[in-house]
């Protein structure tokens, strides 16, 4: 079974989220500060669960 990272659907989803967040960061200075935090990643965001 393929891992989540290798799943084309998961990669496309992550790419879509990344593009949205990058555009938002371009237009929102306060968000850009949070988005540039090196301890955070889009991959962690889309795979987060409790």
Can you describe this structure?
By secondary structure, this protein is an all-alpha fold. The chain has one domain (4-47). 66% of the residues lie in helices and 0% in strands. It has three helices and no strands. The chain has helices at residues 8-27, 29-35, 42-47. Helix 1 (8-27) packs across helix 2. It is globular and about 35 Å long. The mean pLDDT is 86.
Please provide a brief summary of the model:
The chain has 50 residues and is mainly α. The chain is built from three helices and no strands.
- Tell me the number of strands: 0
The portion of residues assigned to helices is 55-70%
Chain-averaged pLDDT: 86
Gyration radius, to the nearest Å? 12 Å
Largest sheet: none
Helix and strand pattern: HHH
Shape: globular
> Cα distance, first to last residue?
23 Å
